[in-house]
């Protein structure tokens, strides 16, 4: 992604360079793929983000490279079960009754909308995490943080959809929890290009790095046999 000069100038002024990580040790690295579910990727669903279908191939390529290098892959899925109770403000105030009912029905565990898009190359060895809120790192949302800590992961590559909602929310909270957090530009999708770009401008100004799939994989340092994730 090419950033405006004013963004680059402010980032360099703050941290001394545009991209802070020359090397990404795979043994301490996880790709966190957020919400690439049928509810968000297929036509006809209320939550459809049509551009997300265009990032399936880059996500597969990123995951294949990190997995082969000995890193961790995590597929994060949103579930709406009981969300009208534990997230009542969102469902009663921020959604119309019709949209609330549709979300509760079509994003619950076991529904077709909950499933990952069929073209994603998820492996049995990958981790699966179910979240309740936009951010997988929010208190009470999921078990993502303890799973990552338990594997010695301190660096995250964030991919998935929607860039400026669940992906950015998860990445920001991860940064606040002291993870090195990187948004992967061409493995993220928002409903419009403007939302995608604006989110990544704000992200790199204050929170973490932005790299492409090629830039991230070029920085990978394969894990030694003793370091590879179980």
UniProtKB/TrEMBL annotation:
<feature type="domain" description="Isochorismatase-like">
    <location>
        <begin position="30"/>
        <end position="214"/>
    </location>
</feature>
<keyword id="KW-0378">Hydrolase</keyword>
<protein>
    <submittedName>
        <fullName>Isochorismatase family cysteine hydrolase</fullName>
        <ecNumber>3.-.-.-</ecNumber>
    </submittedName>
</protein>
<dbReference type="InterPro" id="IPR050272">
    <property type="entry name" value="Isochorismatase-like_hydrls"/>
</dbReference>
<dbReference type="InterPro" id="IPR036380">
    <property type="entry name" value="Isochorismatase-like_sf"/>
</dbReference>
<dbReference type="GO" id="GO:0016787">
    <property type="term" value="F:hydrolase activity"/>
</dbReference>
<dbReference type="Pfam" id="PF00857">
    <property type="entry name" value="Isochorismatase"/>
</dbReference>
<dbReference type="InterPro" id="IPR000868">
    <property type="entry name" value="Isochorismatase-like_dom"/>
</dbReference>
């Amino acid at each position: 992604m090419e950033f405006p000069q004013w963004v680059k100038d402010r980032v360099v002024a703050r941290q001394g360079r545009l991209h802070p990580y020359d090397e990404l040790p795979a043994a301490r690295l996880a790709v966190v793929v957020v919400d690439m579910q049928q509810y968000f990727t297929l036509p006809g669903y209320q939550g459809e983000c049509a551009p997300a279908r265009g990032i399936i191939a880059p996500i597969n390529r990123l995951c294949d490279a990190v997995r082969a290098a000995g890193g961790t892959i995590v597929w994060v899925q949103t579930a709406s079960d009981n969300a009208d109770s534990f997230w009542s403000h969102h469902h009663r105030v921020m959604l119309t009754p019709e949209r609330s009912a549709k979300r509760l029905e079509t994003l619950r565990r076991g529904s077709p909308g909950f499933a990952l898009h069929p073209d994603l190359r998820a492996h049995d060895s990958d981790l699966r995490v179910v979240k309740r809120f936009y951010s997988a790192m929010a208190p009470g949302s999921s078990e993502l943080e303890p799973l990552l800590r338990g594997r010695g992961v301190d660096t995250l590559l964030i991919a998935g959809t929607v860039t400026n909602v669940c992906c950015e929310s998860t990445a920001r909270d991860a940064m606040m929890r002291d993870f090195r957090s990187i948004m992967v530009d061409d493995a993220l999708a928002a409903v419009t290009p403007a939302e995608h770009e604006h989110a990544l401008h704000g992200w790199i100004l204050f929170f973490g790095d932005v790299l492409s799939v090629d830039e991230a994989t070029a920085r990978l340092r394969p894990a030694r046999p003793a370091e590879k994730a179980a």
